[in-house]
Structures are given as structure tokens and as C-alpha cells.
Amino acid sequence: MRRFNVTWWAYSFPITVLAIAATEYAEEVKGKLADVLMLVLASLSMLVTFSLVILTLLFNSKMLLPDNDPFVSSSAVTPVPHHLPTINTRTTPLDIGRNY
């Protein structure tokens, strides 16, 4: 088995589209073979999607939640670049009438 990669998610989309098409076909035809085809493709789609979720969580947790993520880390503060001016967005009632 090759090393897991996020691009494996590309396999889930065509299988899911086939399962949806088989469901619509089974509704129109109303036959046993169409129902079996729908059941097999829908089960395969769910199995592939569930497996990809598990594999993504197991092997790509570093990619999903990196150590230096500013949204996860509460101590991470993004510094303001020195070439940008700082803007004071807080105003007091006295500042409203002043012309600068």
C-alpha cells in the first residue's frame, strides 16, 4: 500500500456520484437488480468515505492541526509588520466632535 495522501479523497467523489445515479435509476426502474446496484454502490461510497476520514485523521493530523496554528494556540500573537501604520479604532465620546 502506498503512503496515504490527501489526494486519495478524489476517489470518493466519482463513487458517490455513481451511488446517487444508481439511486435515481432504481427509483425510475423499480427492479430488484437496480435496487441491489443502488445498495452496493451506496455502501461502497459510505465505506470509502468513512475509511478516508479515518486515514486522514490518523496520518495527516500534523497537516490538519499544525503546531504553529494561531487559531489553536492561545499564546500565539501575530505581530503587526513595521511597514504598516497602526490604527486606533477605539473612540471616546470626546473624539467624535474633533477635526483632525
Helix content: 40-55%
The value of Rg in angstroms is 26 Å
The assigned structural class equals: mainly alpha
First and last CA, distance: 68 Å
**Spans of 5+ residues with little confidence (pLDDT < 50)?**
none
Share of residues in strands: under 5%
The largest β sheet comes out as: none
Mean pLDDT: 79
Molecular shape: elongated
Helix and strand sequence: HHH
| Total strand segments | 0
State the helix count.
Answer: 3
Overall description:
With 100 residues, the protein is mainly alpha-helical. It has a domain at 13-58. It has three helices and no strands. It has helices spanning 12-29, 32-59, 61-64. It is found in: Cell membrane; Endomembrane system. It is a multi-pass membrane protein. The chain crosses the membrane at residues 36-59.
Q: Helices, strands, pairings?
A:
Layout: H1 12-29, H2 32-59, H3 61-64
Helix pairs in contact: 1-2
Notable characteristics:
mainly alpha, single chain, 100 residues
Briefly, what is this?
The protein is mainly α and 100 residues long. Helix content is 50%, strand content 0%.
